[in-house]
Design goal:
This protein has helices at residues 17-26, 81-96, 104-126, 179-187, 251-254, 259-264, 271-283, 355-358, 365-368, 409-418; strands spanning 34-42, 48-58, 67-77, 134-143, 146-152, 156-161, 165-168, 191-196, 202-209, 219-220, 233-238, 244-249, 292-300, 315-317, 345-350, 387-388, 406-407. The chain has 436 residues and is α+β, with helices and mostly antiparallel strands. The strands form four sheets. Strands 2, 3, 4, 5, 10, 11 and 15 form a seven-stranded antiparallel sheet that branches. The chain has a six-stranded mixed sheet with strand order 1-13-12-6-7-14. Helix 2 (81-96) runs antiparallel to helix 3. The longest helix has 23 residues, at 104-126. The radius of gyration is 21 Å and the shape is globular.
């Protein structure tokens, strides 16, 4: 469902993570929030799956104060295989991609890169299962007041902050609402258009042909072609210590409700009741036409047993999800350059489909990627076996300094295919067999 863009609520520049974390230390100690979760579902095809782990793990094993939460929604299509596989494997792939020796600031700084690598690895590993299903993924990691969201597909994630502002934390990878993705997929050799019924007009949403998928990014969908990629949009924000509410829902909700409608019908209720009210509101007008799933997460100051109503009526505050941001962080940052933490502050956002870019921006790369391991699948590389993500067959000059991160031959081949540097292979010959 496409929505009209509105003025961005977040400042044009990102606030460096180190500034936000240092500010927590210099002010009075901010206690860890309470994270409460509720879920509701009405199933028609049985292809929606969720992962709800309020205590998903610890950054430092054995230290409960370093625990973090994970909540995810997998909306499968053409079967449930991809959704089940991603639910069972994606979190482990994320954690394996982060060195265990990192402090909290380092852990949060590398998390966006780890999510990209894990999504691509999960998609690549699914090839061995030899199933043709696919799934959207909206994956949320909460570490104290910092929220990191990675998404492919159209299962939307929104945040209502304590001051009543509403933010998109996910991207929409439907062709109908994303012309940049239309251009990318057609440049890779596929066709994007509506269903052409012989003897009649074109009908329905824009789809990728062959295959008939209306999404440009997903995990799985191997028979549609490699222009349908698993590189996620990633957004990382820091909430104020007043907290907020996060809603993750499949398109069964958003096809019938706007963000304001979902929040209006659930505001003031506990997370569990709120999730059921949203699903009921979405299915009330026309019944259950699709799997309809909703997760509501409340991030609350300690000892708050229920979310407080926003200070003022909610207003839509949407970001241009594909805008390019400078990754340069000043060597010296003054506290006065940034607002006090009474609003949501953006730390990181990137939706580029280029995995070579996504793995080479931000944190010191040598500390993230071992030169002896593939940056995606983490397989051990023999001497001389790794291929730099910078590698370009049209450029023969030697790179200066460290040339990593490195990929194994199969992950490099997948990168080249996803970035449109070779023609898609393995596309389905059944043009109507894989519609979503």
């Amino acid at each position: 469902m496409a929505m009209a863009a509105a003025p961005a609520a977040l400042s044009p520049g990102t606030v460096p993570l180190g500034v936000l974390l240092r500010r927590e230390v210099t002010k009075e100690r901010m206690e860890r929030p309470d994270v409460l979760c509720g879920e509701a579902n009405r199933s028609r095809k049985g292809e929606d799956f969720t992962l709800l782990r309020a205590d998903a793990g610890q950054r430092i094993p054995g230290d409960p104060s370093t625990s973090f939460s994970v909540f995810a929604l997998f909306d499968g299509h053409n079967g449930s295989g991809a959704a089940i596989y991603a639910r069972e494997n994606l979190l482990n792939n994320v954690l394996r991609a982060i060195p265990t020796c990192f402090c909290r600031e380092e852990w949060l700084a590398v998390l966006p890169r780890a999510l990209v690598a894990a999504f691509v690895k999960t998609d690549k590993d699914f090839q061995a299962v030899a199933e043709t299903s696919g799934t959207t993924v909206t994956f949320v990691i909460i570490d104290e007041w910092v929220v990191t969201v990675a998404s492919v597909g159209d299962s939307r994630c929104i945040l209502e902050s304590a001051d009543g502002s509403i933010y998109f934390l996910s991207a929409d990878h439907r062709f109908d609402s994303n012309p940049d993705e239309v251009k990318r997929v057609t440049a890779c050799g596929s066709k994007v258009g509506k269903m052409d019924i012989v003897g009649g007009p074109e009908v329905g949403p824009l789809r990728c042909w062959p295959g008939g998928l209306c999404l440009s990014r997903s995990i799985g969908d191997l028979d549609v072609g490699e222009c349908i990629i698993a590189v996620p949009h990633v957004k990382q924000v820091k909430l104020s210590n007043a907290g907020g509410r996060i809603i993750i829902a499949s398109d069964g909700v958003w096809d019938d409700l706007t963000c304001e409608m979902a929040l209006d019908c659930s505001r003031g209720f506990s997370s569990d009741v709120a999730a059921h009210r949203i699903v009921n509101e979405a299915t009330r007008p026309r019944g259950i036409r699709d799997d309809t799933t909703c997760i509501v997460i409340d991030i609350l100051p300690p000892e708050n047993i229920a979310p407080s109503p926003p200070k003022r009526p909610g207003r839509i505050a949407l970001n241009n999800m594909f805008r390019r941001r400078s990754q340069d962080v000043p060597s010296k940052t003054k506290r006065s350059d940034y607002a006090e933490p009474d609003v949501v502050e953006e730390i990181f956002e990137d939706g580029s489909p280029m995995i070579s870019k996504r793995l080479t921006t931000g944190y010191t790369l040598e500390k993230i990627f071992a030169p002896s391991s593939c940056a995606v699948c983490l397989v051990r590389l023999k001497s001389g076996q790794g291929i730099s993500v910078h590698a370009n067959p049209l450029q023969h000059e030697k790179l200066q300094g460290w040339q990593g991160p490195f990929l194994c031959p199969s992950c490099h081949e997948k990168k080249e295919a996803m970035e449109g540097k070779r023609r898609p292979r393995g596309s389905s010959t059944n043009v109507f067999g894989h519609m979503c």
